[in-house]
Design brief:
Distance between the termini: 52 Å
Strand order of the largest sheet: 1-2
Radius of gyration: 20 Å
Pfam family, one: zf-CGNR
Mean pLDDT: 87
Protein name: Zinc finger CGNR domain-containing protein
Order of helices and strands: HHHEEHEEH
Number of domains: 2
InterPro entries: ABATE, ABATE_dom_sf, Znf_CGNR
Length: about 160
């Protein structure tokens, strides 16, 4: 995310910000980057069997204390309403991260060996190794492994 507009666009694509909400400001972008970086470091520590550093936990917790969107019943539908959509989205992201990293799912946080992206392994067996098939990481690794096996079989003949 290079600009506040990039952050606004990402929030809207993720359905975390309505079109009538204000655009993200530079301060929001700074907080979003700080949250992203703290989450990455915390998840990496967990993957490595360590505790995240207190400063990262504090930063995540501070943003999670913001006012998340509140569900409202409007015309028979549930809509999420926030006074400040950008800040509410940051609070929601931080709060969800706390819930993921601090509970049983923490043992399923993985680091993709191909792209270094963090992901939560939700496979039944808990043995997923790559971030997603759609990204191509798993496919590239499988092709590489297949070619290595074929080359080894060819040299063994």
């Amino acid at each position: 995310m290079a600009t506040p507009q990039d952050f606004t666009r990402w929030l809207r694509q993720a359905s975390l910000l309505d079109l009538d909400d204000r655009e993200a400001l530079e301060a929001d972008l700074v907080d979003a980057r700080a949250l992203r970086d703290a989450l990455y470091r915390a998840a990496l520590a967990i993957v490595n069997g360590e505790m995240p550093v207190p400063a990262d936990i504090d930063g995540i917790n501070d943003l999670a204390q913001g006012t998340p969107p509140r569900p409202q019943w409007v015309n028979g539908e549930v809509v999420h309403v926030a006074r400040d959509g950008v800040r509410a989205a940051l609070a929601l992201l931080a709060g969800d991260a706390v819930g993921t990293l601090a509970d049983a799912q923490a043992g399923r946080v993985r680091l993709c060996p191909e792209c270094r992206m963090m992901f939560v392994d939700k496979s039944p067996a808990g043995k997923r190794r790559w971030c997603s098939s759609a990204s191509g990481c798993g496919n590239r690794a499988k092709v590489r492994d297949h070619r290595a096996r074929k080359a080894q079989e060819g040299s063994a003949r």
